[in-house]
Prior knowledge:
There is one protein chain. By secondary structure, the protein is mainly beta. About 10% of the residues lie in helices and about 45% in strands. A four-stranded mixed sheet has the order 5-2-1-8, with helices on one face. A hairpin with a 5-residue loop joins strand 13 and strand 14. It is elongated, with a radius of gyration of 28 Å.
Amino acid sequence: xxxxxxxxxxxxxxxxxxxWPDHEETAALLAQAAEELEVAQGDLVVAIxxxxxxxxxxxxxxxxxxxxxxxxxxxxxxxxxxxxxxARVEPAQVPLVQEALSGSPGKLFVRFDATLETERVRRxxxxxxxxxxxxxxxxxxxxxxxxxxPPESVPTPPEAVLPLRLTAPVGELPxxxxxxxxxxxxxxxxxxTVTAADTAPARLPAGQSLRLTVHGDDGSSYERTGxxxxxxxxxxxxxxxxxxxTCEAPGRDEGTTVAVEAWYQPAGDGLPDHRSFTLTxxxxxxxxxxxxxxxDLDGELVVDVSETGGSGGTVxxxxxxFTTPHxxx
Length: 329
């Protein structure tokens, strides 16, 4: 369903869309699959795949090809992944929206940003093209003498958003969960929880700063603050206060095995860490990440070293301590 409400110099558009194949699309896919697999269509079973919709946007495209994002929304999270988008329309864009709602293609688009199984995909719906084949009851344009109030049941989307680029691994040690929170330009507080890279949204509300709450495996946590750069919000290990530790044990005979147990104790609010490794030829090194909550190690590494030679001889266990992320034993 689509509607445009015009009240004097003010206007708003509301679009309801979903990501789901219609009967014709399903029939065409079945026919293609049956031909490729050389089976009868009746022998095929259609099932829902692994789809995760990260966000839905409503975009207007001018005659010159310039695009303007009007609204952003989440989907329902389950098939048919319905989204309701509401946006204020500038006076200059009202004719464009009216043309789209009258069935003119190439003017207004709804885009679904999603992950299908493991592949990031985008599905684009041309609003005018879709409405040209829809019953007229699904298209509405209202002109009011007084300014219309937006429906209370539909939240107003953020005025501005910035791209989010998450490069730090989340969902594995040492960062089991990440909470991103802030305040948008309208002063509304928001929070997004990330449990893995594919659960992160493509965009976050624009603001002066971003609060990052890093959660460890044992329930402990600490907070960091980030600021946007020219490309938007960037969340990497440095932003999270995560440091890579490298342990090296050079100079051993080829048949030697070095067993390492390492404990990290942060000086501040970081997350304690315990790891066990075995170092062998030819690499003689291992690396892992610790959450110090700072730009450097800001704590102490306590390392127990046990060594067994190729002939079976052993070196007594000994303990060494380091305050830098570069361990050489």
